[in-house]
Amino acid sequence: MRNENRGHRKAVTKGSGTPKTIDEYLARVPEPARSTLRKVRAAVRSAVPPQATETISYRIPAFRYKGVLVWFAAFSGHCSFFPTASVIRMFNEELKGFSTSKGTIRFPIDKPPPIGLIKKLVKARVAQNEDKKRR
After folding, report:
1. Tens digit of pLDDT for each residue in 80-129?
2. Distances in Å between the alpha carbon of 64 and those of 53, 61, 125, 126?
3. DSSP 6-37
4. Domain range 22-129, its CATH number among 3.30.200.20, 3.30.70.20, 3.30.1830.10, 3.90.1150.200
5. Which of 47, 74, 75, 93 is 20 to 30 Å apart from 27, CA to CA?
């Protein structure tokens, strides 16, 4: 994952210090990005196994299940979803029309990617993590 929190790109949150929970992170994000990230969070939650947990990783929200699955964050001009580079490659065709880089999908602060697409990306990450744990 390319960490967009380093260098000139910093997650947009109010307050100081690293948030301890996703709720705390979202409380610091201005609207409309907060509502957008809430939709992303709900889509991820609906696609992860019940044992998955929410966490803060690299100072941004993440979901864990047999390792970190995905991250998401708000930035000054966009929001980002980080499903890893391998998942971006797997879904390259479906991601046309989105701004992507090695492990990042960027989207407008007021419009998340389609919920169905987020679920597919998350399920692919779950499968990858389950496969790693079997080896």
Report:
1. 999 999 999 999 999 999 999 999 999 999 999 999 999 999 999 999 99
2. 5, 10, 10, 9
3. STT-----SSSS--SSHHHHHHHSPTTHHHHH
4. 3.90.1150.200
5. 47
